[in-house]
Specification:
This protein is mostly helical. The chain has one domain. It contains 4 helices and no strands.
Amino acid sequence: MTSAALALSLTLSFSSFAALALSMDRHHRAVFRVPAPRSRFRSLRAAGWSGLAVSLAASIACSGWNFGPVQWIGGLTGAALLVVAVMSYRPAWLRAAAIAALPLAMIALPFAMGS
């Protein structure tokens, strides 16, 4: 396991969990201060679950079937803790943090796949 592969898993999982958190009415109101339409909830939920699937695929591609799922679970745990911390202390920052995590994942991708 390289640090780039872990960073890739962590950033993808963080953005996915942020989308899943924002698909809940209570968290969406905490971040945006307005209610959201149902279609936005559905699209955020679909993006969150799809992102988690991509995160699993990236972990398996980087580390193989033997260690990839273990690395993915570790990334899920770290990402979930980060989302909970951001939602607890600075909910307005969640959107910006989730959007910033995606370019970081794209930067980590070539390093993770190269190792």
